[in-house]
Amino acid sequence: xxxxxxxxxxxxxxxxxxxxxxxxxxxxxxxxxxxxxxxxxxxxxxxxxxxxxxxxxxxxxxxxxxxxxxxxxxxxxxxxxxxxxxxxxxxxxxxxxxxxxxxxxxxxxxxxxxxxxxxxxxxxxxxxxxxxxxxxxxxxxxxx
Length: 144
Hints:
The protein is α+β, with helices and mostly antiparallel strands. The protein has 2 domains: 2-111, Sandwich (Immunoglobulin-like); 113-144, no CATH class. The chain is built from 2 helices and 9 strands. Strands 2, 4, 5, 7, 8 and 9 form a 6-stranded mixed sheet that branches. The protein starts with a helix and ends with a helix.
């Protein structure tokens, strides 16, 4: 893949990456699946990282490598971790040339709303957790 990048540079093509999602208005919820998307020129393999402190540190690697031969090239289905923060960003970089990268707008990872009901009377708190049980009991009492 590195040869393609070098050939593109020789031919005058500039590698580039543009993160298209998430954006500042994206709804990113702990435990949900979020579709990360990007556009690229010349780049054939990317690395995706997360910061929860507005770029001070990039300690979480979401995936080391998404190759252009992968079925979902230019998007990645991400299981959002339990790391809520209002100052999150993603960095997508060229796996072979890390100086080529783009960062998303700042977005928030939030926990599901507590007390959000489904038709069965369930709640967004983890089923079987202490909080989940307490919320479910409170909801049952409120319905009586």
